[in-house]
């Protein structure tokens, strides 16, 4: 089933969130709004707003209140993407030139900062000190994850726990916060909000591992960027760590750098795919998914729980 068809009953609210996103990123200073819209209109799965809206179904669902959280979480994600592209020196995202490629690195950094500020502005509509504390802590951890990514570039001897800690900060915590804050905004019971937080955390770990696998198994057309670009940019992901266990493949991987040409990268990707790295990576992703699905069983039975179950499975098994 297609992702949007899965949560079609949320389509009106998601369309409203999209309109709110566009209205929020527009700026009186034209170029700043133009750059932010450039990224927004490139599309995306919008899974963070979906998690916010579904988690809010475990409390009193008031869209006029919930929408501020959904918009804020997606803006934080967008801001992190803009900064990521600067760090990775990436020219293409979702099939379009990145902001740093179309404008400049400096312009991109300020666009990311602008999106962070707009996010906080939207969250300020919610009178909940606890929610603001959760959001602030999440942003701090996302920033720490970005710094760790810079520090760990081309560090092929890093342990598995370093990778897991990095993706927890860069991806899992933002999805966890989406679930928890959606529940907070709807006034759901504390125990329910906490279970949703850990559900989002485990789904987020699985989501990022799957994303890292797809960098090797998908096409440039599906990814919206060249296959293997994460490795070429020095990001040592789970399939790479597992493939490094093969001594012959290890020599090819550790020779990769920013100047490795397309033909050489294709050979490295083929070598990685001949190992058991992809299967082992899927196995770890599945373990996180199992933990997430187990937590769902402890939540009240409703339509949102069923959709969170389907969404988690989609995330773990998607092919693009």
From TrEMBL:
Q: Name one GO molecular function term.
A: metal ion binding
* Class in the EC hierarchy, top level: transferase
Know the name of this protein?
Heptaprenyl diphosphate synthase component 2
Which Gene Ontology BP terms does the record give?
A: isoprenoid biosynthetic process
Q: Which UniProt keywords apply?
A: Magnesium, Metal-binding, Transferase
Q: Fill in the subunit field for this protein.
A: Heterodimer of component I and II.
Output the lineage of the source organism.
Bacteria, Bacillati, Bacillota, Bacilli, Bacillales
Function statement: Supplies heptaprenyl diphosphate, the precursor for the side chain of the isoprenoid quinone menaquinone-7 (MQ-7).
Look up the record and name the cofactor or cofactors this protein needs.
Mg(2+)
Under catalytic activity, the entry for this protein gives: 4 isopentenyl diphosphate + (2E,6E)-farnesyl diphosphate = all-trans-heptaprenyl diphosphate + 4 diphosphate
Similarity remark: Belongs to the FPP/GGPP synthase family.
Gene source species: Geobacillus kaustophilus
């Amino acid at each position: 089933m297609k992702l949007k068809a899965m949560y079609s009953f949320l389509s009106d609210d998601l369309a409203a969130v999209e309109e709110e996103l566009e209205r929020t990123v527009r700026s009186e200073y034209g170029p700043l709004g133009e750059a932010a819209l450039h990224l927004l209109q490139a599309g995306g799965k919008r899974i963070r707003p979906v998690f916010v809206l579904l988690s809010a179904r475990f409390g009193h669902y008031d869209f006029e209140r919930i929408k501020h959280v959904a918009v804020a979480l997606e803006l934080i994600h967008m801001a992190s993407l803009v900064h990521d592209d600067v760090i990775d020196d990436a020219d293409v995202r979702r099939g379009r030139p990145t902001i740093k490629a179309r404008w400049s690195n400096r312009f991109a950094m300020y666009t990311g900062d602008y999106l962070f500020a707009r996010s906080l502005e939207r969250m300020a509509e919610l009178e909940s000190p606890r929610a603001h504390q959760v959001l602030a802590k999440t942003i701090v951890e996302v920033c720490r994850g970005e710094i760790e990514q810079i520090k760990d570039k081309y560090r092929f001897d890093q342990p598995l726990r370093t990778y897991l800690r990095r993706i927890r900060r860069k991806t899992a915590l933002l999805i966890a916060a989406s679930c928890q804050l959606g529940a907070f905004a709807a006034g759901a019971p504390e125990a329910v909000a906490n279970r949703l937080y850990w559900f989002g955390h485990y789904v987020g770990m699985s989501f990022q591992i799957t994303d890292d696998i797809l960098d090797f198994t998908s096409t440039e057309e599906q990814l919206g960027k060249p296959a293997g670009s994460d490795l070429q940019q020095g990001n040592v992901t789970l399939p790479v760590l597992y493939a490094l266990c093969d001594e012959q493949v290890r020599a090819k991987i550790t020779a990769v750098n920013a100047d490795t040409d397309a033909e050489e990268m294709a050979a490295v990707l083929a070598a990685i795919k001949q190992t058991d790295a992809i299967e082992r990576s899927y196995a770890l992703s599945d373990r996180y998914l199992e933990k997430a699905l187990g937590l769902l069983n402890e939540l009240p039975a409703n339509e949102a729980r069923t959709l969170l179950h389907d969404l988690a499975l989609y995330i773990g098994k998607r092919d693009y």
